[in-house]
Design goal:
This is ABC transporter substrate-binding protein. It is a single chain. By secondary structure, the protein is of the alpha/beta class. 51% of the residues lie in helices and 12% in strands. Helix 2 packs across helix 5, helix 6 runs parallel beside helix 11 and helix 9 packs parallel to helix 10. It starts with a helix and ends with a helix.
Length: 294
């Protein structure tokens, strides 16, 4: 009897210890709370983490190059992350509207809120490194409202990251200086903002729009593009390698046959890369074509 009572007492102590530690885990001191940020894609998550550093945790909903943001739909885990977050960053302009299915405390869109553009505009805004600099500064302002005590750190982090991004804006400026009104063709409008900044004119927008929307490009559009390749009317062809439309593969083959350079780009960030190295690689392909070393 005595022995049994001793066991019960021990058990009671263990249980209450678990309850006490459990409670203390659930209510951490305010000063150590990390900002919980969500991004619709990992390249936007990278910007959030760069500004927050150790003052926050980032959850990127699309964190794989194998998931197409155009066709994605929200599942339970990311929906909970959005609900529990302090801030959500999305691309906007119709690209990742699935994020608005769940109410969030704060939601910033790169398109509407920062670039001041509306749905219908080209959605691939991350191909504007100049705009990404504005995104980090906007994030610094938003995070400063959530945790004013870390304001100086957020702005310093944003500026440090933007300094790295200057490698990209400088490279784009160099490419533009060496481009004399070149014309190009693209498989999809993914790279168009970068091309515009470089001063290149896309001559097959109608064709590219069809591929982006997953419909068949018209016979006339294909024939025109084939002629443009054969007659070297384009400086290069931009291929989104994440698309596997047979018509694109045939056009790329034709480019190789007629020695028209092909620039390979992706819609989402390839595994093991960061935003800077991803963009730099793609921009350098254009620079190398200009130098004649493709
Ligand atoms: Zn796209």
């Amino acid at each position: 009897m005595r022995y049994i009572r001793f066991v019960w007492l021990n058990l009671l102590l263990v249980v209450s210890a678990i309850i006490i530690s459990g409670c203390s885990l659930r209510t951490p001191a305010k000063s150590t709370t990390k900002i919980q940020a969500v991004a619709t894609t990992n390249f936007y998550g990278e910007l959030e983490q760069a500004v927050l550093k150790d003052h926050g945790q980032v959850y990127s909903i699309i964190d794989s190059a194998n998931v197409d943001p155009h066709e994605y739909d929200l599942t339970i885990k990311p929906a909970r992350k959005i609900e529990d977050s302090d801030l959500v960053l999305s691309n906007g302009v119709g690209y990742d509207t699935w994020v608005t299915k769940v109410t969030s405390k704060r939601h910033i869109t790169v398109g509407e809120d920062i670039a001041h553009i509306s749905p219908g505009a080209n959605e691939h805004l991350w191909y504007r490194p100049d705009l990404m600099k504005k995104v980090t500064l906007k994030l610094a302002a938003e995070f400063s409202q959530i945790q004013p005590q870390h304001r100086a750190a957020f702005y310093a982090n944003a500026k440090a990251y933007n300094q790295q991004l200057s490698q990209l804006t400088d490279l784009l400026a160099t490419i533009k200086r060496h481009n004399q009104g070149g014309k190009v063709a693209v498989s999809e409008p993914v790279f168009d903002y970068a091309l515009a900044t470089m001063g290149y004119k896309v001559i097959n927008q109608h064709f590219a729009q069809a591929i982006e929307e997953g419909t068949d490009p018209s016979y006339d559009d294909i024939a025109q593009l084939q002629a443009d390749i054969r007659h070297h009317r384009i400086a290069f062809f931009v291929e989104n390698t994440q698309s596997d439309a047979p018509v694109i593969n045939q056009l790329v083959k034709l480019c190789h046959q007629y020695h028209v350079p092909v620039v390979q780009v992706t819609e989402t960030m390839p595994a093991g890369r960061n935003y800077l190295s991803w963009m730099k690689d793609e921009f350098m392909q254009v620079r190398n074509i200009q130098k004649g070393i493709d």
